[in-house]
Amino acid sequence: MLLRQLFLQAILRSKLAAVSILCLTSISLAQPWTTKAPMYTARGFLSTSVVNGKIYAIGGALGPFTGSSAVEEYDPVDNTWTQKNNMPATRSDFSTCVIDGKIYVIGGAESPYGAIRPGILVYDPIADSCVEKTQMPTPRIGVSASVVDGKLYAIGGATAGLSSVLSTVEVYDPATDTWDTTKTDMPTARTAFGTSVVDGKIYIIGGTIGPPWSGLSIVEVYDPATDTWDTTKTDMPTGRWGFVTAEVNAKIYAIGGASPGASGVYNTVECYDPATDTWDTTKTDMSTGRRVFSANVCNAKVYAIGGVAGPQGSTYPLASVEEYNPEFDITGVEEQEFYDRTPSRYNLFQNYPNPFNPSTTIGYILQEKSNTKLILLNSIGEEITVLVNEKQDKGYHKVEFNAANLPSGVYFYQLKVGEFTSVKKMILLR
What we know:
Strand order of the largest sheet: 1-24-23-22
Low-confidence stretches: 1-30
Strand content: 35-45%
Shape: elongated
Largest sheet: 4 strands, antiparallel
Radius of gyration: 24 Å
Helix content: under 10%
Distance between the termini: 47 Å
């Protein structure tokens, strides 16, 4: 009898371990941010572009006075990096964009405090080689590069040593290898800002005018079709510079960057909806705060790559890569909108805010009127309390959870509705 009891206990422990593993697997799949394989070369002030489903990390800085010419290719499917042929010379604080499967490298300097590189390079990922084209009329660092209708729009930036911050707009036509310098200047001169294209318009967000390194929150929109600027848009909630913007499903995500005075770095994410001119500040933070990094969108996911982890003057370049999936970060104002698009499915949302102290909100969708159970688990999958246990109507529901009596730590919450089960992780920080 004793042997049988020990045997059954062993089986029970094995099943609990299996449940814990299953929970962790579900959590890893459902978390907005996940860590990916790092680059070979740790660097800030780099730029990245996507060609044929692969991300190319180009140039950057190894330190305050050392540039990089490295080119590395990332495969999001295999989560692997491959070293490619270097650029002909080092280049940092520049921009890249893609036209007809080739990567255009514009602006920048030999190092963060070095001489400006006036030339424009075109990198061919298939040939793994660079050719030089007609240089930009206004050589500059911190310039943005956007593509609309096959033409490259170079906007803003700064002259050598940040002696002058620019509002200049110049347009490059790859078909003729020529530049057009007649475009209307950006209303607010700035550098180190975020740029995204939505519906053929270029959104310029944030940035800085240089010392004392206060972050701007201004949003200005350029329409290439009419050569006009719209300055009526709602400001970004957090002024920042050295950050990135990324467009996914016609929404713009502003990520990371430097805090006022360049005394630190942000890891926050704010989402702008051009259709409603509104900002959502309930998004999940990036794991690693960073500035002067790069990001690209591939398969509707954002990849934050490299950068610098410390304040201005820091020499801590990063090789780390983090993947952000907006689909798993549906919170706040987007919850009902998501339900309106997908009324015929069950879904458990990530709690917000997360981490939290002491209160947080858990939202979920019911496909039909159902017996619903929402439970709180500790870090090893043991039930702590039942948050919901009743029959609920079809639609969106949310629970306000107060953890005032719980210690700091990692917790799980699980939704069970018929055959549907979903588990997510939340963090309580005192």
